[in-house]
Structures are given as structure tokens and as C-alpha cells.
Amino acid sequence: MSIEPSYALQQLISRLEQHLTVVSQSRGSADAAVDAAFGSLADAFQTYEDALYDQYSELLPFTIPTDDDDDE
Known about the structure:
Blueprint: H1 5-24, H2 32-56
Helix pairs in contact: 1-2
Organism: Glutamicibacter ardleyensis
Protein name: Dehydrogenase
């Protein structure tokens, strides 16, 4: 059973807001909370994109960078 795109979008917006809050209160690049917020945001993005694809066969025009991208 797939998730509703509108619900996935609301979750993505929530994670974006959460990410902004964490980043704005960060104590530096080694702050584990920033990494956790990034991961949560990336997961929400992927869930939203999957929901869009399942329902409408559409993808978003951008991707989340991965550690593999650093190798290129």
C-alpha cells in the first residue's frame, strides 16, 4: 500500500522546518543533530518522491547528494 502524496508532502515540509531549526541552532559542522536532521529530511524527500511516482508516474527535478557523489 502506497502513501498519499499529500501526506508525504506534509511530512516533507515538516522535516524541512525541523532541519532549519536544527541548523540554525547548530554548534558546528560536527553537530550530530544536523546529520540526523539531514537524514530525516532525505528520507522524507524519498518518501514524497516515491508517492508521486506511485500515484502519478512523476519524479522531482533534483536528487539528494550521497557520499558516492563525492567520488565523482
